[in-house]
Design brief:
alpha/beta; Arc Repressor Mutant, subunit A; Rossmann fold; 8 helices; 2 domains; 43% helix
Length: 220
């Protein structure tokens, strides 16, 4: 059973989160001492942390940055802010995902499940050909070269990697991306695929993703 640590100062929301997670089969823990939340995060032994950005006497983004210096435990940021800058900062500091409030409970559970799955994959040392895949870091590495993928690019690449050699339809990829904060339309999907191809080309695999017209894509 995966353990999830909740770092949220809103008592009502914290209780709702704990109930939602327990009903979904997760073990939960809650930080109530915000004088030194970092210590609680480091010693919790959690498999994933839900971290609010706006905490009393602390900034969740700074906490995340300090936490990342010592641990790689997956972290999903929670915030009522809608500023794109906060998401960019959070992701650059090492967040695995970013969820705005009020959130859809089903979507939150899906995103928790996706992050835990990516984390397990990274711990197992995933690879594609001779390219090291790090979902937690969001990177593809081959020798001395490293390409950083966006959240959407990594979701697409992992889906293709999970079904390497099979055709993955555009609809399936869109479904995998539907719970993301950024709305993905058909054109945006094409842009993401194009950028992913370009990064794989930089790593020396120019024809990794094959397009099957009216069917989808294949990772070869």
């Amino acid at each position: 059973m995966n353990k999830i640590l909740i770092v949220e100062d809103d008592g009502v929301l914290c209780k709702e989160l704990a109930t939602l997670l327990k009903n979904a089969g997760y073990e939960t823990d809650v930080i109530t001492d915000f004088n030194d939340p970092l210590s609680g995060m480091l010693t919790s032994g959690a498999d994933l942390i839900l971290l609010d950005i706006g905490l009393p006497g602390a900034n969740g983004e700074v906490l995340l940055q300090d936490f990342r210096k010592k641990k790689d435990t997956p972290v999903i940021m929670l915030t009522s802010r809608t500023n794109d800058v906060d998401e960019v900062i959070s992701m650059s500091y090492g967040a695995d995902d970013y969820v705005t409030k009020p959130y859809n409970p089903t979507v939150l559970l899906l995103r928790i499940s996706a992050v835990l799955k990516r984390s397990r994959g990274s711990l197992q040392g995933r690879s594609y050909k001779d390219i090291a895949v790090s979902p937690v870091k969001g990177s593809l590495t081959r020798g001395e070269k490293e390409e950083i993928l966006t959240k959407n690019e990594m979701i697409i690449f992992e889906l293709l990697l999970d079904r390497q050699g099979e055709i993955v339809s555009r609809d399936e990829i869109m479904t995998a991306l539907w719970d993301n904060d950024e709305y993905i339309n058909d054109n945006a999907l094409s842009v993401n695929i194009s950028r992913l191809r370009a990064k794989l080309t930089e790593l020396g695999v120019p024809e990794a993703i094959e397009t099957r017209k009216k069917q989808g894509y294949v990772l070869r």
